[in-house]
Amino acid sequence: MKHHSATPSATSLPRAPHDDSTRRMTKYFIMMAVRVVCFILMVVIAPYGWHTAVLAVGAVFLPYFAVIVANVGDDVREAPAVSPLSALPERPEPAPTATAQPAAPAPTVIEIRESRPE
């Protein structure tokens, strides 16, 4: 008897498109807020030094990474389709019988004829 481990399940469904886009927009917003903080700290902190260069790199390159992170969805690969019939147990085949069964009787044919009264 075959056992199939990939049975369809409601809990294995992908995230709803609205929830996925909301989550990606939140990630983008957070990364852009970090960029603004980097830019403000780069201008405000004096004297300028190595930390200014690090903040400048963050302010310049964070938008690129924010767009990449925002455009990547949750499920990059799709799960293979599973036939609902594959989850059903297989029917056992009937055991062959040693005795021959008698042939079924021929069906009875009933004819109905209508005649007109004369």
From TrEMBL:
Highest taxon, organism lineage: Bacteria
InterPro entries, sorted: DUF3099
Transmembrane parts of this sequence: 28-48, 54-73
Compositional bias annotation for Low complexity: 96-108
Protein name: DUF3099 domain-containing protein
UniProt keyword terms in alphabetical order: Membrane, Transmembrane, Transmembrane helix
Coiled-coil spans in chain: none
Keyword set includes Membrane: yes
Compositionally biased intervals (Polar residues): 1-12
Region (Disordered): 1-20, 83-118
Keyword Signal: no
